[in-house]
Amino acid sequence: MQILITANKGGVGCSTIAYLIATIASGQLVTNDPWHVPDYNIYQMNEPSDLDNLLTTAPNNIIYDLSMHRNRSLAISIAKKADLVLIPCTGNFQSIHAAIATYREIRALKKRTMIVINGYDNKEHRLELLDYLQRKQIPLLHIITLRHSRLANRLLRDGPFWENSTCSAKGLHRLNRTLEIYTDILSKVIEQ
């Protein structure tokens, strides 16, 4: 399975979500984010032609972390090949608007697409965001919500090095719980 995680706006959790899904799915993480380069487990992709080399060596699951604001044409070319596109956003309306625009652009390609609201403050905030997205013609089945938490903030802050900081700060129990949450999310996404 090929899953693309992309957004028009930075700082919404694309890299963290991609890293967690790649870990859970035992997949190859592919990115166009230059801060990932030193990690030997992450494949750096900057041009669509890089895909040919990757497909000959990659495992069955490829998870792409490709920011549209870094290289729009690369993200769109991978979206055309992906089985699923996840569009993270935060719980503020500027981020939601960017996600809606990206959602509509990818859905026009006839691809399975979901918006991932990565952080909301409370139940009322979540309901307000879901109501707003429904009024913008985004079906509830195409929306995933992740609650805002200190642990999520740590994951967002530390990116691919989240495991070390999380284990040392909160212990293995919370790390395992985080992986359980993302495993559950991934299984629900794949089923839909």
Compact description:
The chain has seven helices and seven strands; from the N terminus they run βαββαβαβαβαβαα.
Describe it.
The chain is of the alpha/beta class. It has seven helices and seven strands. It has helices at residues 14-24, 50-57, 72-81, 93-107, 123-135, 150-158, 162-191, and strands spanning 2-5, 28-31, 42-44, 62-65, 84-89, 113-118, 143-146. It has a seven-stranded parallel β-sheet with strand order 3-2-4-1-5-6-7, with helices on both faces. The radius of gyration is 16 Å and the shape is globular.
- By CATH, the architecture is named 3-Layer(aba) Sandwich
What order do the strands of the largest sheet run in, or round the barrel if closed? 3-2-4-1-5-6-7
Please, what is the average pLDDT? Answer: 78
Helix-strand sequence: EHEEHEHEHEHEHH
- The CATH class designation is Alpha Beta
The CATH homologous superfamily = P-loop containing nucleotide triphosphate hydrolases
- Using only C-alpha atoms, the radius of gyration works out to 16 Å
Please give the domain count. Answer: 1
What sort of overall outline do the alpha carbons produce when their principal axes are compared?
Answer: globular
Number of strands: 7
Number of helices: 7
Share of helix among residues? 40-55%
**What is the subunit arrangement here?**
single chain
The stretches of 5 or more residues where confidence is low (pLDDT under 50) are 169-173
Q: Strand fraction band? A: 15-25%
Distance between the termini: 14 Å
Helix/strand/pairing category: alpha/beta
Largest sheet report = 7 strands, parallel
CATH fold name? Rossmann fold
